[in-house]
User: What shape does this take?
Amino acid sequence: MALLEIRDISKSFGGIRALDQITFSVEEGEIFGLMGANGAGKTTLFAVIAGQIRPGSGQVLLRGECITGLRPDRICRRGISRTFQIVRPFGGVTALENATISALYGSDSPPSRKGATEAAAVALEAVGLGAQKDRPASELTLSGQKRLEIARALSTGAGAILLDEVMAGLTPPEVDEMIATLRGLRHDRKLTFILVEHVMSALMTLSDRVLAMDRGRMVALGVPDEISRNKDVLKAYFG
Ligand SMILES: Nc1ncnc2c1ncn2[C@@H]1O[C@H](COP(=O)(O)OP(=O)(O)OP(=O)(O)O)[C@@H](O)[C@H]1O
Ligand SMILES: [Mg+2]
Assistant: This one.
């Protein structure tokens, strides 16, 4: 059974059809890439999966169970967590405190503060922020703040992580480091990722399969090689 199944999801904002009958599934342990020009609906799809937005129609299933319309905290506790395109840490507090808050949020039963702090420290170490855990989040570089977003998602204990443009704005060496970090996380923690990325080389190297979207619709779904040669994808993406 697929870990996650997106079944015929549509969502309109006024006259804009942000998502139009999106259907695909993601296997456990897969890195699933989502590409599409600005406004394609990628972030909206993440918001639907994570429960921040209710779809107009369609279903999201987690291990065969319908989670459509559940509150974001409930979905997080069932094991789906996301990062945000615009990083939004609590700037005044440290990286460790930021990740601790996420650990508390993701926990089913009231966890001990100590347990949450430990989970947070492990997550920060896993994304390479171990040495900076006591720095205020606002003092981290952009790359550090993107890593903190990932650490916060990991701290919740979720096994499926939705990453919204964690490489945007990074330098090429930082992108390479991020690719290595994500590969390591999948390998060490058996995580499943859905990855939205405009950095095409990164998306294509990391993903097992890629879904190309355009103005809310599915254009093509396949392995990276197929997608990068697909005529409809090239037309939608590069004009
Ligand atoms: N809360 C909202 N209210 C109204 N329209 C919205 C809302 N959120 C998204 N949209 C519209 O839905 C469409 C899809 O937006 P979305 O942010 O999902 O695209 P995206 O693929 O993430 O784009 P980008 O690559 O720029 O991040 C756009 O036309 C956008 O303007
Ligand atoms: Mg977006």
